[in-house]
Amino acid sequence: MNGFPWLTCLTLVPLLGGVGLVCGMAGRDRMARLVAWFVWGISAFLVLALGTIVDLRAGTLQAVERHAWVPTLGVTYHVGVDGLGWVLLLLTVVVSGLALLAGRTIRERVHVFHGLTLALMATLFGTFTALNFVHWFLFWELSLIPAFFLVRLWGGPQRHTASIQFFLFTLAGSVAMLLGFLVVLLGTGELDFPELARLAREGALWPAVWKHWNGWVQSPQGLALVVMVLVLAGLAVKIPMMPLHTWLPSTYSEAATPVTMLLTGAMSKMGVYGLVRIILPVFQEPLRQAWPWLMGLALWTVVAAACAALAQRDLKRMLAYSSVNHLGYCLLAVFALGAAGSGDQGAVHQGAALNGLVLQMFNHGLTAATLFWCVGLLEERSGGLRGLDDFGGLRAAAPVFCGLTGVAAFASLGLPGLNGFVGEFLIFRGVFALVPWGAVLAAPGLLVTAVFLLRMLQRVFHGPVQPVCGSWCDLTGRERLALALPVAGMFVLGLWPQVLLQFTQPWAIQLLGFLGV
After folding, report:
1. What angle do CA 30, 44, 77 make, to 5 degrees?
2. Best-predicted range by mean pLDDT (90-99, 188-197, 340-349)
3. 82-129 pLDDT, tens per residue?
4. Measuring CA to CA, which of 34, 60, 216, 505 is 20 to 30 A from 186?
5. Which residues, including other chains, have CB under 8 Å from residue 57's CB and lie 6 or more apart?
6. Integer angstrom CA distances of residue 66 from 23, 78, 127, 153, 175
7. What's the CA gap between 512 and 354, in Å, rounded?
8. Rounded to an integer, what distance in angstroms lies between the CA atom of residue 435 and that of residue 433?
């Protein structure tokens, strides 16, 4: 690669573009949209070029950049990408592009919206490539700024309250996570994720930390468990994992449609990424101690969120709880690894769970963002209505819209042949072999998901034609093309999941080998 700083450029391009839009494009809406698309195009090119230039099939970190930053505190500028990171970079580009397409409805402060969207994309790039805690935590926290203003400046009447709730919940989790890593820093002087993972694998990490804090906790294992709980709390808020999910329904329902697409499609993956990048390799031992309790929280997230979605009458709140339910399957995969046995068969099942987890993250991001976009189109054409009982018979008035929305809904409930099926199948295959009772208890979540999504389709698209639907206009040619793009992706990933698995499989094998499976 001739030492070209791919990942640095990938982060700086949308960040500088976003700042430039916010500061220098006031009153020039058309130009702001064009510049935003130009910057997005450069970012998309860099991500795709990175996927072809580096050897992601090696399973190891690629395009690594490392420079001294604050050596006395163990802080380095350390970035790199593997199959996991690249898939999430690609997801960020895809969801950001869909949000820009949906953002055509934004009429106020257009330059600010597009600038904040690019800035959020940059912080996500930074989060998915940083390999030092301080560097990673910096982007983790910076993502709050554009997300907060995106929620606060556009959306429903309660958006101000929702934005504050979102900010405070996430900030509280970040404080807990920061405390946990401060304990590790003072005990080891190390903050690089690969180095911490190496120390943990050799069994030297927690004895060294415990020695520094001797007297506070009775054993290294107890101290490791406490630190893991602190770090997990910060990650769980962002996912979100129940009971730390209460900020999500109001935030998703009050935010403008393109903002909700960004939050659920891309930003929620930051927490799951942290579980895989940090918890699995660094906290392997405490995870083995606590996995039954954590599995209980994952099951709670899967089943209770599906039941909560079933009880909703607001379509955006229904999809918000559906997002919690679908990300709960990722939690199942991660926590089941804590109970995994060794040997060839154990590695096969863990590999299935890991590959399913990455596919589930990507597929959920694509499907959930599309469904929220469809609800946004409903709101736009109906004057703000989005209740389950506000519509009926819409299929007769808008067959194209209903057809595309139906595909996205069936993908979300896991219909074979569409993208949602593959990730969930691999997760359940792995979890059932590792923790059979966990897979059995999670299965009702799949059933309830099918019930509320099918009920949504039946209430909105079928039955007697409601007055609000009688004069409803179907999608324009531009809208059909835009919405058909993610729907086509659902078919491609459902029929040819290898397009992503070819990058995630080597990473999963490398991680399992590192964990000693």
Report:
1. 115
2. 90-99
3. 999 999 999 999 999 999 999 888 888 889 999 999 999 999 999 999
4. 60
5. 83, 502, 503, 506
6. 31, 4, 16, 38, 26
7. 9
8. 6
Contact in structure between 376 and 105 (CB atoms under 8 Å):
yes
Please give the structure tokens belonging to residue 264.
């659920």
Q: What is the pLDDT of residue 1?
A: 47
CA angle (270, 136, 172) in 5-degree steps: 65
- What are the phi and psi torsion angles at 65 (to 5°)? -125, 130
The rounded distance, in Å, linking the Cα atoms of 31 and 46 is 23
Q: CA–CA separation, 254 vs 154, rounded Å?
A: 9
pLDDT class of 2 with cuts at 50, 70, 90 = low
Helices (H), 159-283: 159-188, 193-201, 205-212, 220-238, 248-254, 257-262, 269-274, 280-282
Q: For residues 181 and 134, what is the distance between their CA atoms, to the nearest angstrom?
A: 9
* C-alpha angle 163-168-173 in degrees, rounded to nearest 5: 130
Angle made by CA atoms 344, 345, 351, in degrees to the nearest 5: 90
What are the tens digits of pLDDT across the range 64-82? Answer: 898 888 877 778 899 999 9
Cβ-proximal residues to 150 (8 Å cutoff; 6+ apart), any chain: 113, 116, 117, 120, 255, 256, 259, 262
**Tokens at 134, concatenated:** 């301080």
Q: Where are the beta strands (DSSP E) in 286-347?
A: none
